[in-house]
Amino acid sequence: METYRYAIFDCDGTILNTLDDLRDSMNHVLEAHGFPTHSLDDIRKFVGNGIRKLCERAVPASESSNDKLIDEIFAEMTAYYNAHCKIKTAPYPGMVEAVKRLNENGFACAIVSNKIDPAVKELSAAYFPGVFAASLGEKEGIRKKPCPDMVIEAMKEIGASKENSIYIGDSDVDINTAKNSGIPCISVLWGFRDKEFLIEHGATKFAADADEMVEELLDFKPLAR
How high is the pLDDT of residue 116? Predict the structure, then answer.
């Protein structure tokens, strides 16, 4: 089937449940510095704006503006997480099958994430081999979400335009990323933010599970073909 529709996915909280590995990696680094560790719910609130911002939020408040310390913790977290990003991480139920079904129905799919680029590519290859046409993460020269840069770069890689693309994510960052990119957004309800929070931040279209997400996407009518 001719590909003419494009689905651009967030990673953490949308296609993959990465929270346990993020918590364990962050706590490993915090313990090494003698800082208090955090619960899963704490980390859930901290994620969404990249690893460096996670580090800033995870250290004691008195240290959050210590740039030298944050640089050190960010480097340690990046290295440790890269080596331990597949311990407890797993796709959300039905997600692998859902993206394959989209491919079969004329969608090319991409991942854009504020997670570091090597981890995004590794996780995509490990859990979704051959399913995503492009996988992009945080790297130098491309501004993080909610700036539209990653989405624009993904569109270039997969041959999409904003007229035939739709975004899927689980957070306020994703809602704003879609808005800034000029494309519609589906907010999933199994991720790191609840429905009330998403509504407060402008979400209008929702999916409660992978099957509902697919049906929403199959109903998507692009403006150009």
Answer: 87
- Buried b vs exposed e over 106-140: b needs ≥16 C-beta within 10 Å? ebbbbbbbbbbbebbbbbbeebbeebbbbbbbbee
**Residue 222 confidence (pLDDT):** 87
Q: How far apart are CA 37 and CA 30, in angstroms?
A: 6
Q: What are phi and psi of 25, to 5 degrees?
A: -70, -45
Cα 112–Cα 205–Cα 209 angle in degrees, nearest 5:
75
Question: Residue 1 has what pLDDT?
Answer: 47
Quick one: pLDDT at residue 208? 97
- Dump the DSSP string for 144-194: PTTSSHHHHHHHHHHT--GGGEEEEESSHHHHHHHHHHT--EEEESSSSS-
Parts of the chain with a pLDDT under 70: 1-3, 224-225
Whether 134 and 158 have beta carbons less than 8 Å apart is answered as yes
The pLDDT score that the predictor gives to residue 224 is 55
Q: b/e string for 192-213 if b means 16 or more Cβ within 10 A?
A: bbeeeebeeeebeeebeebebb
What's the rounded Cα separation, in Å, for the pair 109 and 55?
Answer: 30
The one-character DSSP state at 139 is: B
